Amino acid sequence: MYGLTIEDWLLFPLYLYVVFFIFKKIRIRYAHNPILFKYFTWAFYTKIIFILIYTLLVCYVIFGDSVSLFFEQGKHFLELSTGNNGNIGLLFTNGGKQIDELADNGYKGYLAIESNYLVVKICAVLCFFTFSKYLIINLICGFIAFLGSWQLFKFFYSLYPQLSKPIAIACMGIPSVLFWSSGISKDTICIASIGFLTKSLYDIVIEKRHILLNTFIALLALYLTYTIKSYIVLSYLPFFFIFLIFKTINQTSNVLVKVAFKIFIPILVFVSVYYIASNSEDMFTEYSSEKILESVAHTQDAFNSQAAKTDGSFFTLGDFGGGVGDLVRLAPIAIGTTFFRPFLWESRNLIMVLSALEGLLLLLFTLNLFISKRGFFVFVKQFFTNSLVFYCFSFSVVFAVFVGISTFNFGSLARYKMPCIPFYFMSILITFYKTNPNSRLFR
Questions:
Q1: Which of 120-124, 288-292, 365-369 has the highest mean pLDDT?
Q2: For the residues of 205-259, what is the DSSP string, one character each?
Q3: Residue 96: is its pLDDT beyond 60?
Q4: What are the boundaries of each domain within the chain?
Q5: Which of 272, 52, 81 lies closest to 178, judged by CA?
Q6: How far, in Å, CA of 376 to CA of 371, rounded?
Q7: Residue 205 needs a FRET pair 20 to 30 A away by CA distance; which of 135, 211, 289, 422 works?
């Protein structure tokens, strides 16, 4: 009914050649830097492999929204827009009841949500340029996600060039992030956007470079991320702005400006945390709408009931009523769940096993830091004195609370937590470097 055809494989070499041509044009810029040249090349070829793996698994094993919702409805709305008596305006309309009525049978309700319809519109445009071939669309989306991850790598590398190898792993080598950002989906768009947003804002505020181009990139990335998953923006921007403010303070020699900023920043942190906590119920409600248009408090009973009838892919952290008290109570469990689960004994298939192994390695890396001599104290010091550690760890933890509390399925968890994993890894990595600079990890 949907997925791959023989035409996909016949056209794939042609489109791959075009992508490879763009890749080589970009890589030329790094010819003077062997490190950037090496990691850009390595990450590109790795991404192409994961795009093929993702496409095959989604079409023949996993299935899911990428092919059954976004790709199928993308083709459908392209036909509605460009066919006989077509209405091209559909591609410039927000999702809603009218759009939802035009969806194919079986998908009613999904396109009433703009976050879903935006991805459908993007897929419809890509269908026009790819003859509606799913493999080619995944190639383009995966390549854009690779470029977004590369921007994130360049951002961290500019701050810690001596940590190039582990930074490359954190930004472009985590298997779950590579896999789930290799096709047309919300997750792919968001992981690409967060990379472009980070680098473009840093270049605007700190580097003062290509202001107009980076402003356009930042606004586009911000629009896409906020429309698809607004909680990413709400949990990310406050801490990133604090980081940018600290960087600006360090670049100024005016004592009065430094003092003013140091007074302003604690106030900004307090207001940001208070705003996030006060609006947590609305944010959770929006997040769970990717399943159904219900709040977490209402959907939880349905998921708990379903968990009893399934093979264990569903889980619960406890009752969540949507209040701040429940948020505080469940936050530690939610954080651990997001970063380290599923555990090996909770895995029910190969993909879950691989996700569990990844979580186990992250847990061991974290424990290795905190139980090492001075590790915990160095981390606390870095958190309060190193703006990059503060920003990365704070964002990843706040984001982990959102994801852990509002996700009830290990398969969804692996996708939803992607944006925060590189940042959590970086916060632990920098601290580990401060305690153990001669480790083999940094050679």
A1: 120-124
A2: III--SHHHHHHHHHHHHHHHHHH-HHHHHHHHHHHHHHHHHHHHHH---HHHHH
A3: yes
A4: 6-228, 242-442
A5: 52
A6: 7
A7: 422
Residue 224 · residue 118 · CB < 8 Å? yes
Of 284 and 243, the structure prediction assigns the larger pLDDT to: 243
CA dihedral of residues 163, 169, 172, 173 (deg, nearest 10): 170
Among candidate residues 209, 216, 229, the one with its CA nearest the CA of residue 155: 209
pTM: 0.87
Confidence check: pLDDT of 35 > 90: yes
Identify the burial level of 165 via C-beta atoms within 10 angstroms of its C-beta, where 0-12 means exposed, 13-18 middle and 19 or more buried. middle
Phi-psi group of 289: left, alpha or beta (phi > 0 → left; psi -120 to 50 → alpha; rest → beta): alpha
DSSP per-residue codes, 154-198 = HHHHHH-GGGHHHHHHHHH--HHHHHHTSSSSHHHHHHHHHHHHH
Give dist(CA 292, CA 228) in Å, integer.
15
DSSP string across 212-223: HHHHHHHHHHHH
> Which tokens belong to 343?
């555990």
Q: What angle do CA 352, 68, 283 make, to 5 degrees?
A: 70
Q: In the Cβ-directed half-sphere of 192, how many Cα atoms lie within 13 Å?
A: 24
> What average pLDDT is seen over the chain?
84
Among the ranges given (32-36, 271-275, 302-306, 361-365), the one the predictor scored with the smallest mean pLDDT: 302-306
Q: Are 184 and 140 in contact (CB under 8 A)?
A: no
Q: What is the pLDDT of residues 226-238, one digit of tens each?
A: 999 988 998 899 8
Higher-confidence position of 359 and 64:
359
Q: Output 123 or 279, whichever has higher pLDDT.
A: 123
- By CB neighbour count within 10 A (0-12 exposed, 13-18 middle, 19+ buried), where does 243 fall? buried
State the helix-helix crossing angle for 164-172 and 34-57, rounded to 10 degrees: 20
The residue-averaged pLDDT of 39-58 equals 96
